[in-house]
Amino acid sequence: MSAPAYLASDDSALLRRAIEGHSGQTCLEIGAGNGGNLIAFSGGYGLAVGTDLVRPEMNDWSGAGANYLLADLASCFRDETFDAVVFNPPYLRSEKVEDVAVDAGLEGEVPLAFLREALRVVKSTGFVLMLLSQDSPLERVREECARKAFRLTRTESTRMFFEELSVYKASAEAHPELGRA
After folding, report:
1. In a 3-state reduction of DSSP, which class is residue 142?
2. Which structural domains are found in the chain, ordered by start?
3. Which residue in 7, 30, 42, 88 could disulfide with 48, CB within 3.0 to 4.6 Å?
4. Taking the model in full, what pTM does it have?
5. Tens digits of per-residue pLDDT, 140-170?
């Protein structure tokens, strides 16, 4: 793949703030880009892993004790492996996916693919944090989460330039039908 890794920007900083305060045994960042969020994970998790289609240009994450794998989404992991899964997928609508770092597809196919993999590899007691734009197919995201009995809640949002970006958390612990607060 000839495309460079996605460089952290304001959207990555929003997701990084949402990560703060979380801890556990295992976490995964799908589409880790240059690994900036992996550094934030490594202090709170025994095993912090990032995946991406392209090799990172920086390696600050390795000094923080994180791991990085060249992989398509989470395809190299077994079901229900991680306590936490985080992703900042390409979210800009596009006729077709030409730039894998930013193009989401016309109907948000790319963020939905990230979500399906995240829900597959997260433990039923874990959670998924994802950054989405106002153009993301939120109803379809909710439906995917409900299939795993996860409820979707918005934790943070900010307006940047011409769009609103939000971090959503999907977890069973927030699902009222399961009797959890």
Report:
1. helix
2. 10-178 (3.40.50.150)
3. 42
4. 0.84
5. 999 999 999 999 999 988 887 778 899 999 9
